[in-house]
Specification:
Helix content: 25-40%
Radius of gyration: 56 Å
Structural class: alpha/beta
CATH architecture of one domain: 2-Layer Sandwich
Largest sheet: 3 strands, mixed
Number of strands: 8
Distance between the termini: 202 Å
Strand order of the largest sheet: 2-5-3
Strand content: 5-15%
Length: about 240
């Protein structure tokens, strides 16, 4: 009995010591501001980085790529900046219209309708092969019809101007028309540069020196140039009346 009491006393002493040790540990943890945890939980917490130390990279909005041409916009400029011009690669190319045979007024209207912004310019120095010779009409152009260019390009044209010849110089070109048929006389006038009207008239009296239906004389009217009217006189066709039976 006494032995059992001693064992019980020793057990109580051991339990009291353990209780005191636990109280001391809790007190130390309380002074450090640490809540007692299990060993596994403490190791895991130590391995994980603090939440405040994790940095989140900011996300910035990105713009769509825009094709730029530094030659067009200039250094340091972007297409949206004030004063920047559009890239030539982005411009619409226009087909040069055919202006040959048109008047200058018609050419200007055609160019404007095609989308060109510049005025059509006269340039007499232009040279083209096989130039038409219609007075007052375009016979040469640059750029040529069908070429591709931008809408700011200037179209140059040349207008055929008939040479003006005074009476003496004009007459020296076609020579004497007397004795020629009417068709031959007209052809001779055209070859000499005449572009005016040709009228026909019959002589009041038959001229033996020029023949039937042949030119007997001619006259240049108006200002007496190769652009004015020419009258050709010829013998009236004679009619022989047969005697009544």
């Amino acid at each position: 009995m006494a032995r059992i009491e001693r064992i019980a006393s020793l057990a109580a002493i051991v339990a009291l010591g353990a209780l005191q040790l636990g109280s001391a540990g809790c007190g130390a943890a309380g002074r450090l501001g640490v809540t007692p945890r299990s060993t596994a939980t403490a190791v895991t917490a130590a391995a994980a980085p603090p939440a405040a130390a994790v940095a989140v990279a900011p996300t910035w909005p990105t713009a769509s790529p825009v094709a730029t041409d530094t030659a067009a916009t200039g250094p340091g400029r972007r297409p949206g900046d004030a004063g920047a011009v559009p890239s030539p690669a982005a411009e619409v190319r226009l087909v040069v219209p055919d202006l040959i045979g048109k008047t200058p007024e018609q050419a200007r209207a055609i160019a404007q309708a095609a989308g060109f912004t510049q005025e059509v310019e006269l340039r007499e120095s232009l040279q083209c092969e096989g130039e038409p010779r219609a007075p007052g009409r375009i016979n040469c152009q640059e750029p040529v019809a069908g070429a591709l260019t931008n809408r700011y390009a200037m179209l140059h044209i040349k207008v055929f101007r008939a040479q003006t010849l005074v009476a003496d110089e004009f007459a020296s070109r076609f020579g004497d028309l007397r004795g020629l048929t009417l068709d031959e006389a007209k052809q001779r006038l055209v070859q000499a540069g005449h572009d005016g009207e040709v009228s026909l008239a019959t002589k009041d009296q038959y001229d033996d020196g020029c023949g039937q239906n042949k030119v007997c004389t001619w006259r240049l009217h108006g200002s007496r140039t190769n652009h004015d009217e020419v009258t050709l006189w010829f013998n009236r066709k004679t009619q022989i009346a047969l005697p009544a039976p």
